[in-house]
Each structure stands twice: as C-alpha cells, then as structure tokens.
Design brief:
Layout (H helix, E strand, L loop, with lengths): L1 H28 L2 H9 L8 H4 L1 H16 L8 E8 L2 E8 L1 H14 L1 E4 L20 H16 L7 E5 L6 H16 L3 E5 H14 L2 H9 L3 E5 L8 H18 L3 E5 L3 H9 L8 H14 E5 L12
Parallel strand pairs: 3-5, 4-7, 4-8, 5-6, 6-7
Antiparallel strand pairs: 1-2
Helix pairs in contact: 1-4, 6-7, 9-10, 10-12, 11-12
Length: about 300
C-alpha cells in the first residue's frame, strides 16, 4: 500500500511538472521576440520546425529573461539569439557589448608589458598629460611618434630620449605612449625600469638565465628603458647587457625609447665611469652612438609631480 502511494505521488508530481513545462513553453511561443522571429523566417523554417524547436525557444526566452533580471545565465557574457539552422530553430550565443568592451580592454592591456614600473602608468594617457610650457615639446614629440608608428609600424621610427629632473612626468609619458600605441595600433610595448632590471640581471648570473632575459628584452616590438643612468652601471652591464640589447635594436631598426635624469652628455660621462674614477670614454661613446641612433633627446621640465595623477 505504501509503495502504491509513493508511485501515485511521483506520478502526480510528474504530471504537475509537465503541466508547468507546457505552460512555460506556451508562454515562450507567445513571446513578442519569438513571434517576430517566426514571422521573419517563416519561409526558411521546415513545416515541423516549431514542434521540434520548442525546447530551443524556451531556452532562448529563459536565458534572455535571466539576463534582464540580473541573474547568472547559462553563458555569462553572452546573450542568446534565435537562428535558423538547416530549416530548424536553434539558439546561438553572441558576446554582449560589455564582454566585447572588456575583451578589448584586456587585449590592449596585454600589449603593454611593464617590468617593475609604477602602477599609475597603467592608466596613463597622452590626453591627460598636462601640456605646460616645460612639457609641451615632449608631449608633441610623443604624439608625433605614436601617430607615425601607428600609420606605418613596419618602418623604423626614431624614438625619444626623455631627459629631465625627478618627478616631471617622464615615466608617465612613456606609459602614455605605450597605452596609446596599444589602443590605436595594437602595438606591443615592453617598459623596463633599468635600475631594477640591472639588479635582476646580476641575480640571473647564478641561474644561468642572463642570455634568455637579454633575448626577451631585445626583441620587444617597442622597448622603453626607464630611468637609465639613475644608478652607476658596471662595465659588464654596460657592455654585455645594454650593449647587446641596443646593438640588436639598432641593427634591426626597432623603436626604442628612454627616460633619464641625465642628459645624453651626462649619461656618456656616467657610462664611462668618470664618477667612479674610471675613464672608459670610448666604450661609453659606443653605447651612446646606439642610443643617439635609436632616439632623439627631448627635455622635460617643470615642477616635481611625483605625487600627482599625471606626474
């Protein structure tokens, strides 16, 4: 007797579920979007397309309504749409505008590789760079560089050597150039903080990864070396690290930019080791010859903006 009651209860539940399902399917068939689709594709659909496509129609309406209510849909980031496939009704999922925007933003972000660079350069933009009298020449040069590279990325374009005191916006300007290259031309950039990179290269000696790191840097589509000359550079770093990177980029004519607190003339003295009592001017001049080929010096001046948003 107990088993019979259970079977009867299960049967009633099954009937109630089917009734609810048929009501939902009927409502889905009467949905305005569904009706519009059926009318537009009446000539394309098989005679039994509606009978065979009720589950697809219900899926479309159900998932569309979930999105409208802010609930988690079957395919987050995608919206359902009814399509005709071989005379039958099917559901296709297309990315939403929000997902397309997020994907594009992620794609652009992936084009800019920052190595030990400050976080504020991630949102740096040339349009937000304050064009004061002391910085307008650098801003104009940056815009010309971006426009030239985007218009003809396969041709060599001489980069910029941004020189000036601390906090005037040299690093921010490099970040802004990198972001504009990514957004306007899909061009990849690698930004490197040179003093930190030098420390990492010395540590790489023990793990025998020096050449691998050098190879990765020298082949960057656009390379930016930030704060070069901020600290004393050893002869090994000068000749066997920077020398190799810059020689390769000069030979291959690859866009390269720099920022420094030193002018090119002062950087020459530093690379020669005169501040350490050495005199290797010839080797320093060889490095500077490559830098001058790759970039032209532009002075950035003004007040110290180290703590501002567009520093």
């Amino acid at each position: 007797m107990e088993d019979m009651r259970k079977r009867l209860a299960m049967l009633m539940d099954s009937r109630q579920w089917r009734e609810r399902y048929f009501k939902m399917v009927k409502a889905a068939l009467q949905d305005p979007d569904v009706q519009t689709f059926l009318k537009q594709h009446e000539a394309d659909l098989a005679d039994d397309a509606i009978d065979r496509g009720t589950a697809k129609i219900y899926e479309f309406v159900s998932e569309r309504n979930k999105i409208a209510r802010g609930e988690l849909p079957l395919a987050p980031g995608y919206q359902p749409t009814l399509v005709v496939a071989n005379g039958l009704i099917d559901v296709a999922y297309e990315p939403t505008d929000a997902k397309l925007a997020a994907d594009e933003e992620a794609k652009q972000a992936s084009l800019v590789t920052s190595v030990n660079m400050p976080k504020d350069i991630h949102d740096a933009s040339l349009t937000n760079y304050d064009p004061t009298d002391e910085r307008v020449d650098a801003l104009l040069a940056a815009n010309r560089f971006v426009l030239a590279v985007v218009a003809d990325p396969k041709t060599f374009h001489q980069g910029l050597y941004l020189s000036g005191p601390f906090g005037v916006g040299k690093t921010y300007l490099l970040g802004a150039i990198a972001n504009d290259l990514a957004s306007k031309g899909g061009i990849a950039t690698t930004l490197i903080h040179v003093p930190t990179f030098v420390v990492e290269m010395k540590s790489a000696i023990g793990s025998n990864t020096v050449l691998k790191k050098i190879d990765s840097v020298k082949r960057a589509q656009v390379l930016m070396l930030d704060d070069i000359g901020a600290e004393s550079i050893s002869p090994w770093v000068r000749d066997d690290v920077l020398g190799i990177i810059l020689q390769y980029r000069m030979q291959e004519k690859m866009p390269t930019l720099f920022s420094s607190n030193k002018s090119m003339a002062d950087l020459t003295e530093s690379l020669a080791g005169t501040d350490r009592g050495n005199s290797e001017m010839l080797k320093a001049q060889r490095i500077m010859e490559r830098i001058r080929f790759l970039a032209k010096e532009v002075t950035v001046g003004g007040e110290n903006r180290r703590n501002s948003l567009a520093n």
